[in-house]
Amino acid sequence: MKEKLAKIRKAMEAELEAFESVMDVSKFRDLQKELENLVTTDKVTGLLNRWKFEERLEREMGRARECDGTFSVIMIDLDKFKEFNDTNGYVAGDSLLWKVAELLKEKRGERDIVARWGGDEFIILCPYLNKHEACHEANIIKSCWDFGTVTPSIGVTEFKHKDNEKSLITRVDKAMYKSKKNGKNEVETI
C-alpha cells in the first residue's frame, strides 16, 4: 500500500511540476504582452507610438508595392497647443492630447492606423485610400473638432511607388506645414 501511495504521490508531484511550468509560461506570455504594450503605445494618448507606426508603415508600403495598390497618410499638428499648455499646465495639455486621440480613433476609417507622431502631432495611415478619399476623411475630423482655440493643421499625401518612408513622411509634413502657412485650421494635400 505504501508503494502504491508513493507512486501516486510521485505522479501528482510530476503533474504539479508540469502545471507550474505551464503557469510560468502563461505568466511569461502575460509579461511579454505587457512589455510589448509599453514599448509600442504612447503613454499619454493610448495610441500607437511612432516606432510602432513606422513598423506598420513599412509593412503597408510593401503591401502596396506587391499589389500595385495605394494608401494615404494624414498628419495633424495642433495649432496653439503650446499656448494652451503654457496657460493651463501640462496636466490639462495631456488631457487635451488624450481627447484628440479619442476623436481620431472615433472618426478614423475602419482600417486606419492612428498614432501619436510626437509632441502635438498625430499621424494616420489610411490603407487602400487615395489622397482624395483621405482628404475627405481629414475634413470629417476637422468638422468634428471642438477644442476651443486649439485647431488642427492637417496634411494629406498619397503613397507613390518610388517612395521610401522618409520621402513619404517629408511630403505629408510639407502638406501639414502648407496648412499652417495658409492660415491654420485647414486640410492641404500634396
Quick recap of the structure?
This protein is of the alpha+beta class and 190 residues long.
Order of helices and strands: HHEHHEEHEHE
Could you name the CATH class of the largest domain? Answer: Alpha Beta
Q: What is the CATH topology assignment of the largest domain?
A: Alpha-Beta Plaits
N-to-C terminal Cα separation, in Å?
A: 85 Å
Give a count of the beta strands, DSSP E runs of length 2 or more. Answer: 5
**Architecture of the largest domain, CATH level 2?**
2-Layer Sandwich
The major β-sheet equals: 5 strands, mixed
Output the CATH homologous superfamily of the largest domain.
Reverse transcriptase/Diguanylate cyclase domain
Shape: elongated
Secondary structure elements and their pairing?
Layout: H1 2-40, H2 50-67, E1 71-79, H3 81-88, H4 90-107, E2 113-118, E3 121-127, H5 131-143, E4 151-158, H6 165-181, E5 187-189
Parallel strand pairs: 4-5
Antiparallel strand pairs: 1-3, 1-4, 2-3
Helix pairs in contact: 3-4
